[in-house]
Design goal:
This protein is mainly beta and about 180 residues long. It has helices at about 30-35, 165-170; strands spanning about 1-5, 10-15, 20, 25, 45-50, 60-65, 70-80, 80-85, 100-105, 110-115, 115-125, 130-135, 145. It has a single domain (about 40-175), classed as Jelly Rolls, CATH 2.60.120.10. The protein has two helices and 13 strands; from the N terminus they run E-E-E-E-H-E-E-E-E-E-E-E-E-E-H.
Length: about 180
Amino acid sequence: MKIIKHLFDDVLVIEPKIFDDNRGFFFESYHDTKMANLGISVRFVQDNHSYSKFKNTIRGMHFQSDNFAQSKLVRVIKGEIENFVVDIRRSSKSFLKYDSYILSAENKYMLYIPRGFANGFKTLTDGCEVLYKVDNYYSPKFDHAFRFDDPEIGIQWNVNNPILSDRDRNAPYFADIKGSNIFK
């Protein structure tokens, strides 16, 4: 496994070592000791599986707050996505800055997103399947979303008619999320 660096030092793109032969391929998608050697020392407690039927589906921007914040390890097993992360740590020099990452079944990259970042993605193909591990359980009370097109953040989604859930379509702007100690 090796790391591919991007904008944020603590958001990591992991390129696994792939073993190909005439039958197909094999790779370790998770190995706790190897992950710890890369700087990922979290205990994952839940796996999630997302399926999006159509290209240009947007899911996000989502995060959990307070003691229910989550780190995530994201990978795509079918199709291709552009995954966006936004730094929502108020004390960070990169507060409300974002970066994007292409993850696909073909490149087999994994994306580690630590606590303190919101996450969302756009499908680049029909029939996308995304798997992600989290290090904290889902908590409806501390689950948040903000608008994918929040002008204060300015994510360039490059899609004219996104397919959205009602939750994402009606999410508040980041500045309007209240009642929580969102990351300091």
